[in-house]
Every structure is written in structure tokens, then in C-alpha cells.
Design goal:
Strands 1-6-5-4-7-3-2 form a seven-stranded antiparallel sheet, with helices on one face. A five-stranded mixed sheet has the order 8-9-12-10-11, with helices on one face. Strand 2 and strand 3 form a beta hairpin. It has four domains: 156 residues, Heat Shock Protein 90 (2-Layer Sandwich), CATH 3.30.565; 78 residues, no CATH class; 85 residues, Rossmann fold; 111 residues, 2-Layer Sandwich (Zincin-like). The protein is of the alpha+beta class and 465 residues long. The protein contains 17 helices and 17 strands. The longest helix is centred in the C-terminal third of the chain and has 21 residues.
Length: 465
């Protein structure tokens, strides 16, 4: 067969493309061919003459591939391959020619080189042509590109566009793509293994394998610098599909940096932050708190830590969502209120027998009888008064000093209230008031004022009697 000259007819040249970006297209095509044909992994190597080679083991490149604007086979399988534009191959050849890199392509179909030749019918116009010749090996499998004029740096930079050749470690895979461990100063965004963007304030890197319509449209000829708007929904979908505590734990730790303004962009997405809490709650013993609760509920949190719980700080906005939600196993999310209720449900009193009280404590406790006799109607509901060393946690995360139990009709008072008569009798009358009225406790200031008032009145009444 005589040599034939095929005009590449490149109308728009990507002048800003580098040699590495052109080589990226060749490597992408090789990886796509491997994916489409399930053949051996492509090879990238340097020969003894210093020429670099990219070799796949697919069906072999034909000169007709230079006629395609879009590859219908690749368009039919967007979640499997990297490329979709046949023009990427032509753009690459034009870039190599502009930078003085010579290219030779071998397959079982033909051998192709490139030359600037006069356009047919216009001898004064030179354009880049593919020079098509007979194959040197008709039994050859796949396609091999050989380049003269490439440096190792060019090749390393080109390989850096691909997840396959990167150091990114996969943390979790979902049906939408993978969460990757971030490396370096920015997080890489890959689409089917090809880097399309970098995010300096992302917590993770991502490989998107399930493409949305918007993302497919955004993957232009250059396949780089794709805007966040095109892929942010898919990144969220990946994170919301994650179920491993490893990813959730990193997100939760980042949430804790929110108050200082050091968190990453993913944890500003409310649905992602809440999902991380749901995964963590199902996988380990955690209590979610706000920064204010961390300060004002230190006592209760110390108890939680002592019970083996890890305290996780979340934003106020996230905290507001948690009481209405369940974790991924169907259990309530454990915020501070839920922990308090869990603790109270599991609580058992440490009762102290009257004979084991000190003489001073017994003297104070003895005042209960005349006081209850003075309050005949109210006292009828009270079957007995008991003393306990420990009490349930109250509304403001301190141990209660007294409890009225309507189901058992008993009042339980914390032992330390017996240190002073005023405190004991104030607490006793307070609980009698609950027994009589059925009213719940209110805020702590009201409780304190009522205790002081009733305490002084009760002591005087007891003494007068």
C-alpha cells in the first residue's frame, strides 16, 4: 500500500496545552481501551534510545479514529471510561507537533507518522497530516505510541493526571465514587480516574465514577479546571453514601474545628455533617455537644467520659437536627439530652439506712415528721421519705437534690442535704409541692428561690412545733 496522507483538519488549536497535557490524552485512550476490552494493563516505558512509549493491548488504532468528533462507544459507557472526544487525539498530535515532539503510532492496522503537508488543492497552506502506511506487524495486539523529544518530567507530569499513578489512598468506595485520602496542599477531584480539578479547602480527595448530566457536560475538550458547581452534588452523594466510621470520624473531627474557623468545606454542608454524626453514633459510644455545652456541662461530660463515651463537638445548627434523627442502625442520636436520659433510665439509687446516718444527719432527718404533719393534705400522697448518696441528673446537668416519684409515692433526698436543716426541709417541701400539684420542675433559679423560701419557713415551723 502506498503511503496515504490524512489531513487532520484541526480548526481550533489548544495553544495553551503543554506536552504533558497532550500525553495525558494518549494515556487516557490507552486506559479507556483497557476498560472497554478487559485487556492487559497499558505500559508506559522508556527504551534504550531515550524514546518514550505508551502501549495498550486492545483492538488497535485505525486512521478512521482521527475522523471522530465524539466516540459513540465511549458516550454509551460514560461511567466506565475517561474520554469521550475523538478530537482529543487530534489536539494531542497538534500539540506534539507544535513542541517539536515526533510521534509514531503502530497497530495491526497501520503505521502512522505525522508531517506538515500542503492542503489538498491549496499548495500554499500547510496543515498537519497523518501519514498512513502498511503495518509492520499485522499480528500485533493493541496500539503503541513512540515519542521522541519527551522528558521524564513530561511523562511524570502526564501520569500525575491519573488516579492510577497517584499516591492517593482510597478510604471508602460507594456507588457514586470513592473517598480518597488527601495528599499535599490541595485535594484532587477525579472523574473515572482522571484529575479534572483541585480543591485547596476540601478535607478529602474524590474519584467520581457515576456522572451526572451536568458533570458530563462540563467535561470539555480540555478535561481540566472543571468548576465545582459541576461536581459538588456528586461529592455530596459520595459522602452521604459512606458508612465507614473512618470517613465519619475525620468529618466529625473537622466539625470540631468549626468554631475556630479551621474546618474544611465539606463540613459546612449540613446534610453531610449530620450524616457523619449518624454513622459515628452507630459505630461507637459518642456524645454530641456544642461548644457552649462543652463549657457549661463539664460535670455531666466528665461522667460521660468516665462511662467510656467520646465527646464530639458539633455546630449549633447540626445539634438542632440531632434530636429528631436516628443513626444508621435506627437508634436515637446521642446528644447531651439523650445521654442524660439514658443515664437516668439506667440509674439506681444508693440508699442510706437511717441507722447508718450520723447523729447530726439523723437529727435533721427527724424534722421531716413534724413538717409532714403540718402539711396534712399535701403529705397524704407521700408514703415514705428516703435518703440516697447519689441522684439522677437534673435539667442543668447537676445531680438533683430531691425527687418525687408518683408511681412509688416516695420522696428521695440526696444525703448532702442533711448537712443543714434549712437545705433538707426546703428540699422536702419542694418535693411535697410536686406531690400535691403534679407540676414539673422549672428553671434552676426558681428552684433555688423556692428552696430558700420554704427552707426558712419550714425550719421555723418545725422549731415552733
Amino acid at each position: 500500500m502506498d503511503k496515504r496522507f490524512f489531513d487532520l483538519n484541526i480548526q481550533r488549536v489548544l495553544e495553551h496545552w503543554t506536552v504533558s497535557e497532550a500525553l495525558r490524552e494518549i494515556i487516557a485512550n490507552a486506559l479507556d481501551e483497557q476498560a472497554l476490552t478487559s485487556t492487559a494493563e497499558p505500559e508506559i516505558f522508556e527504551d534504550d534510545q531515550g524514546r518514550w512509549h505508551v502501549r495498550d493491548y486492545g483492538r488497535g488504532l485505525r486512521y478512521e479514529h482521527f475522523t471522530q468528533n465524539e466516540d459513540s462507544e465511549k458516550l454509551a459507557k460514560p461511567n466506565l471510561v475517561i474520554g469521550k472526544f475523538g478530537v482529543g487525539l487530534k489536539d494531542a498530535m497538534a500539540t506534539f507537533d507544535r513542541h517539536g515532539v515526533t510521534v509514531e503510532i503502530r497497530s495491526c492496522h497501520s503505521q502512522i507518522t505525522f508531517e506538515s503537508v500542503a492542503k489538498h488543492g491549496f499548495e500554499d497552506v500547510l496543515t498537519l497530516h497523518a501519514v498512513v502506511d502498511d503495518p509492520t506487524d499485522a499480528e500485533m495486539s493493541g496500539t503503541e505510541f513512540a515519542f521522541s523529544g519527551l522528558s521524564r518530567q513530561d511523562v511524570d507530569t502526564a501520569k500525575g493526571f491519573f488516579l492510577k499513578y497517584s499516591d492517593d489512598v482510597e478510604l471508602e468506595q460507594t456507588r457514586y465514587g470513592s473517598v480518597l485520602q488527601r495528599e499535599g496542599t490541595s485535594a484532587r477531584i477525579y472523574v473515572n480516574g482522571l484529575r479534572v480539578a483541585e480543591e485547596p479547602n476540601f478535607l478529602f480527595a474524590y474519584n467520581i465514577t457515576s456522572l451526572t448530566k451536568a458533570l458530563r457536560s462540563a467535561l470539555n475538550r480540555e478535561r481540566s479546571n472543571v468548576g465545582r458547581q459541576a461536581y459538588s452534588d456528586r461529592v455530596k452523594s459520595i459522602l452521604l453514601a459512606c458508612s465507614s466510621p473512618g470517613v465519619a470520624d475525620v468529618l466529625a473531627a473537622d466539625l470540631g474545628r468549626f468554631a475556630a474557623g479551621h474546618n474544611h468545606d465539606e463540613t459546612t454542608w449540613l446534610d453531610v455533617a449530620v450524616h457523619a454524626c449518624r454513622v459515628l453514633n452507630a459505630s461507637e459510644k459518642v456524645v454530641f455537644v456544642t461548644t457552649d455545652q462543652l463549657h457549661f456541662s463539664a460535670g455531666l461530660l466528665a461522667r460521660a467520659r468516665g462511662d467510656g463515651y467520646r465527646v464530639v463537638v458539633v455546630t449549633d445548627t447540626v445539634a438542632q437536627k440531632l434530636p429528631k434523627l436516628e443513626d444508621t442502625e435506627g437508634s436515637p442520636l446521642r446528644d447531651l439530652s439523650e445521654y442524660r436520659e439514658e443515664w437516668n433510665r439506667s440509674f439506681e439509687y444508693d440508699f442510706v439506712a437511717i441507722e447508718n446516718l450520723t447523729d447530726g444527719e439523723r437529727a435533721v432527718f427527724a424534722l421531716a415528721t413534724p413538717i409532714l404533719e403540718l402539711l396534712r393534705a399535701e403529705a397524704k400522697r407521700v408514703r415514705e421519705v428516703l435518703v440516697s448518696r447519689t441522684m439522677r441528673i437534673g435539667a442543668l446537668d447537676n445531680e438533683a437534690v430531691g425527687v418525687w416519684e408518683p408511681e412509688t409515692r416516695r420522696i428521695i433526698i440526696k444525703r448532702d442535704q442533711l448537712e443543714r436543716a434549712e437545705r433538707f426541709l426546703g428540699t422536702l417541701l419542694h418535693e411535697v409541692a410536686h406531690a400535691f400539684s403534679g407540676a414539673p420542675d422549672v428553671d434552676e433559679e426558681f428552684e433555688r428561690a423556692l428552696t430558700l423560701l420554704l427552707g426558712k419557713t419550714a425550719v421555723q415551723a418545725a422549731r415552733d412545733s
